[in-house]
Amino acid sequence: MGVITCNEDLRRLAKRRVPRAIFDYVDRGSYDEQTLNDNRRDLQALRLRQRVMVDVSQRNLACTLVGEKAAMPVVIAPTGLTGLVHARGEILAAQAAAAAGIPFTLSTMSICSIEDVAAHCAKPFWFQLYVMRDRDFVSSLIARARQAGCSALVLTADLQIQGQRHRDLKNGLTVPPRLTAANLLDLAYKPAWGIKQLLGQRMTFGNLAGFLPKQDKQTSMGQWIMSQFEPAMSWDDVAWVKAQWPGKLIIKGVLDPEDARLAVDAGADAIVVSNHGGRQLDGAISSIAALPAVVDAVGQRTEILFDGGVRSGQDVLKALAVGAKGVMIGKAFLYGLGAMGKDGVELALALIRKELDVSMALTGTCDLASVGPLVLYR
Question: Is the pTM above the cut of 0.85?
Answer without folding.
Answer: yes
